[in-house]
Amino acid sequence: MNTTTLSGKRLASLIQQRAQDQARLAQHEGIHPTLAVVVATDDESTHWYVRSIERAADRAGIDCRIVDLGPDATEQVLTSVLKDLSSEPSVHGIILQTPLPTGVAADSLVGLIAPEKDIDGANPLSLGRLAVGRPAFAPATARAVVELLEHFEVPVAGRNVTVVGRSAVVGKPLALLLLERDATVTVCHSKSGAMETYTRPADVVVVAAGRTGLLTGAHVTEKTVVIDVGTNVLPDGTLVGDVDEASVTGVAAALTPVPGGVGSVTTALLLLHTVEAARAQFLPRASKLTVMA
User: Fold this and answer.
1) What pTM was computed for the model?
2) Residue 50 host element (H or E)
3) Closest among 253, 289, 244, 268 to 135, alpha carbons compared
4) How far apart are CA 204 and CA 253, in angstroms?
């Protein structure tokens, strides 16, 4: 059978255009949407990604401030910078980019990001608010999965969706977003046992575990829509997902590519979140923060 490729490029372009239109509107209102990206690593792939955000922000008319603290930044320095950015009125969105220097834990730092500026849903308060349906920004990658499913008109209401991976960045918030859309959600992980027990009966399988080739053709059926969230770099520099694309192609109904799938949509959503955060902070009556999905 033919496996449909669910490319994220068209959707990313549409979202970026929305961000650009809203940024232009914000500027007419006297608001200059500004995103701050805090970096403390010499990892080249991270810097490549940050540069891609900067270029996309420039195209959308959003100011992007790269705060590069270097790979030797201490937790004290990061703490001070995040507190300053959270209290600075001219900054509307904040991202703490990982990896962080050895010995520096992200868990304590992300809690310093003001929730109204937490455009990637990193602060535990954001996840908690998301869990009870209160206003919050969902992690952009989790929202990107939902946006892709809606863009390609893949129904989830009343359907079985299996999420492989339980991280606070993707798996857990994605499960919450899918539950809000009336999906029956199963979250499986390294202790779940035979993965096919959960993936083969599912209508949609989202793989977000960070393990190359984790999902194969043996784990899916002809009805399965597979969303690959994985981003793994091979020794030769090739970027691949968590899905063994060769064995899944021809078996599953549909599959997102890596690259060109979830990742491109995620970047566009970060820009849209920034503009929405800016307008919400300055025009609370005209544009209030909503559950972002």
Assistant:
1) 0.92
2) helix 44-60
3) 289
4) 10
Contact yes or no for 163/193 (Cβ under 8 A): no
Within 8 A by CB and 6+ apart from 258, the residues are: 228, 230, 231, 239, 240, 241, 243, 245
| Structural domains of the chain ordered from first start | 24-117 (3.40.50.10860), 140-263 (3.40.50.720)
User: CB of 279 within 8 A of CB of 22?
Assistant: yes
Per-residue pLDDT tens for 176-226?
Answer: 999 999 999 999 998 999 999 999 999 999 999 999 999 999 999 999 999
Contacts of 214 (CB under 8 A, 6+ apart): 164, 195, 207, 230, 242, 243, 244
Closest CA to 137 of 127, 148, 149, 150: 127
Burial of residue 76 (number of CB atoms within 10 Å: 0-12, 13-18, 19+): exposed
Residues sharing a CB contact under 8 Å with residue 158, sequence separation 6 or more, in sequence order: 182, 183, 184
In this structure, the strands spanning 225-228 and 4-5 are unpaired
